[in-house]
Specification:
16 strands; alpha/beta; 6-stranded mixed β-sheet; 31% helix; Rossmann fold; 13 helices; Immunoglobulin-like
Length: 379
């Protein structure tokens, strides 16, 4: 008698708990699925954007899948229990256990791993995700290819994208696709940052038309190009786009160049003004932006030649953000007054040769594939 009473109490408790956890209006759906003949159900698992075939390997690059469950007559089945798992490859899922809504559908997100030399092949790797109806052998699966983050190369003053040709060839051997922007440098840093914004959106859309989903780019910026990258990634436009994972600065005059001061006697464009030490861009505008002008949410690397004719170690330094600079020796200082008068002040001797140095290329490749430090927060 006592055992029967005990059983009724436990059953009542279980029912009360079920009604507490499951809303009353949803209970029929749970019951319907629990007692359904699973062998007669259908499950489909697809990308929300069905045109996507590849995604860049970056944890911020969310890929959304949709699960749909229907009964034998094609009607949507509410509260169907679906188990989602990665059966091949790496990455993370937003949930491994989901329930369909009144339309028989539910969404789940996949987040790719960060691409490194250890978890990607020369070109790409593959991930396979499986959605299984709980309590049955019914399943649907989908595969995606992972590609490395695209790299965008930003040239300096009075230069053009072709200066990166050798670097682009080297990056392709590591499985990276690189794009070099051509912008009108004489219009200055702010104008160039707007061009960069437009360029990145164009590249992303171009990738989408090819079935590749890209969220963030890696940037390699030479000379004035580094200031362009800083200005853009601390701007209002960037707060909307959030589309840069890393910036690798090469010979960037973070605090300006004394040669720009000399050049003002020969040139009178906006860019030269932006490169003079202590000019308003460097002393007021950038320091008034996010984290004093260096985005704390973007990984940063810095490279310089010890005999660079245009940028001193002091000017290239990012020590205030606790970012160190890798120093190389690519040759002796060969700057001349002739190179100044010819208009090539920012693209002379070692300042440009560093873009064709094998050791620099190798270091840059490691920076792309390894985790770089984030700038410290400045008050």
């Amino acid at each position: 008698m006592f055992e029967k009473f005990k059983f009724r109490i436990l059953l009542l408790f279980a029912l009360l708990l079920m009604f507490y956890i499951i809303p009353v209006q949803s209970l029929p759906g749970y019951v319907s699925y629990a007692f359904s003949q699973k062998k007669n159900l259908n499950i489909n698992f697809n990308l929300v954007n069905g045109s996507i075939k590849e995604v860049s390997a970056d944890p911020s690059n969310e890929v959304v899948f949709q699960v749909e469950v229907t009964n034998s007559t094609g009607q949507p089945l509410e509260k169907a229990h679906v188990i989602v798992e990665i059966i091949d490859g790496d990455g993370k899922l937003s949930s491994k256990s989901i329930r369909t809504d009144k339309f028989g559908k539910s969404l789940v997100s996949y987040y790719p791993p960060q691409a490194t030399s250890e978890n990607t092949s020369e070109k790409f790797s593959t991930v396979k995700i499986k959605a299984t109806l709980s309590g049955s052998s019914k399943y649907s699966e989908k595969s995606l290819s992972l590609v490395k983050n695209p790299v965008v190369l930003i040239h300096g003053y009075n230069a053009a994208g072709y200066i990166f040709d050798n670097m682009k060839n080297y990056l392709s051997t590591l499985g990276y696709e690189a794009h070099s922007i051509d912008y009108k440098s004489t219009d200055g840093v702010e104008a160039a940052a707007k061009e960069l914004n437009t360029y990145l959106q164009k590249i992303r859309n171009d990738y989408l038309t090819k079935g590749i989903q890209v969220k963030k780019f890696d940037i390699i910026a030479h000379s004035m190009g580094g200031l362009v990258a800083r200005f853009y990634t601390c701007s209002t436009d960037y707060s909307i786009n959030n589309d840069v994972r890393k910036i690798i600065f090469i010979s960037t005059p973070q605090k300006g160049s004394l040669w720009a001061s000399i050049a003002t006697g020969y040139y009178n464009d906006r860019a030269i003004q932006d490169l003079i030490p202590d000019n308003p861009l460097l002393s007021v505008t950038l320091p008034s932006t996010l984290n004093k002008g260096l985005n704390p949410n973007i990984q940063v690397g810095s490279i310089l030649d010890q005999y660079d004719e245009v940028v001193t170690p002091e000017s290239a330094s990012l020590e205030e953000w606790k970012i160190s600079t890798d120093i190389f020796n690519v040759g002796e200082n060969n700057i001349t007054m002739g190179s100044l008068l010819s208009g090539n002040i920012i693209e002379t001797a070692n300042h440009a040769i560093i873009l064709n140095n094998k050791k620099v290329f190798e270091t840059m490749g490691r920076m792309l594939e390894d985790q770089l430090p984030y700038p410290t927060l400045r008050k």
